[in-house]
Amino acid sequence: MSRASQRGSNSPTHEHCAEAQPGADTLSRELNLDELAVAPSSTGSKEHPASYINDDLSKAESQLFDGDVGVSNLDELNAPVPDQNSEEDTLRYYRSLEEETNVEQGHQATEGVQQTAKNPSSVQKRELLQLYTISWLSLFSILGTLARLGVEWLTYYPNAPVTSNVLWANFGGSLFMGFLQEDQALFAEQRQYAALKPKGSSSGTDVEHERKAHAAEHLAAKKLMPLYIGLTVGFCGSFTSFSSFMLDLFLGLSDDLVGKSANIPTRNPGWSVCSVLAVAIIHVTVSLSALVVGAHIAIALLPLLCRIPQMNSERYTNSLAVFLGIGCWLGAVLLAIWPPHDRWRSVVFALVFAPLGCILRYVLAKKLNGVFASFPLGTFMANLFGTAVLGLAYDIQHVPLASAGKSIGGGILGCQVLTGIIQGFCGCLTTVSTWVVEMRNLKKHHAYIYGSVSISVGFSLMVVIIGSLHWTVGISRPVCTV
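The line above is the sequence of CrcB-like protein-domain-containing protein; the predicted structure tokens follow.
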């Protein structure tokens, strides 16, 4: 990831949060995170800006990917920050997600094996980092699921102007994702608030390079922090839900997307086309806008964020994550078996299945996102698979089952388990926050293709899976509580 390039010596005073090289944390020292920085875009001169930029970035990124620790192909980490021109310079250079992916793949192919051979202990370090990462993902997937369910319940009220409740969760998750990607303070090893005042061409260039070096160090270190991965991949990814977005698209088509206590007469089927378009346009535009607004909030709050205690004391937080991640997951399982009240199971089952969906999405992203630089296949497969599973669970939940004595959805317990799969597993397996990050940073024609194919295929799955039941046998109201 890189910041927007800056030009000229007459730029205004820059105030930022400068961080020193990581060195306090033992694991960070062993991984040489201070040498893994991606140099932000630099322009040099107007005669040859592009070559200067690419040479500078390639040199820095060759150092970044020397120490692969198993977090490659995660677009939450690879994508450039949402606002690549935070200083609002006139001339600038932007890097796309395709460029970031190609650079990463090139260095992994040529140097990854050599690095492992030269440093056998890197395998143990990678395994330790993976343990911390999985622990953070488990914990934040549970918290993200709780946040999504809470937001949906808060926004489900009579005469609500927006009947798609997951829209608010997708907005909040995308907003927080943009904030985390743009932030330069919370995860810094050491911070000091300084005003840089360029004085002339030479000094201005030196000051600008120093500022970029600090930013690059921060970006490189942040990308390898399990806590940061947990917040972006885990919390934001679980807070948002692509499968619920697709379900709302279908409900808009079938005239079932109504608010609480709504009594709306049946409309002409032709209006369903407008309903589907409205849901699709609103979700995409709101989520993309939230990503940018979150980045702007991080820029605006930078002076204040510099005063907040740092969040990268990995020596303590990572060990705590193992305890909390496994402990919360085990606690959810025990609550599902022995709940204080039967009503709890509708939420507790979602918490049980949430880490499974989040970890599966994480694995798919690592394995498949690097296959095509212009099409994030891992996120695409996670979203579609989760959408298909949600459609199947929705069908089973809304029809009488012969194996359960003709009870709808298998009775109360069966309905609660299916709700847990829909809200927990499918909600955390699919994501809108990562999806909009990818669309935001892909080249325009690739972004339109990726976004259009994702929505078209996802909506088609819902029409085939749920529509075939809805328009033939019919669906019944599920009974999940006494």
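Note on the example: Strands lie at 14-18, 192-196, 400-401, 407-408. Confidence is low (pLDDT under 50) at residues 1-16, 18-67, 193-202.
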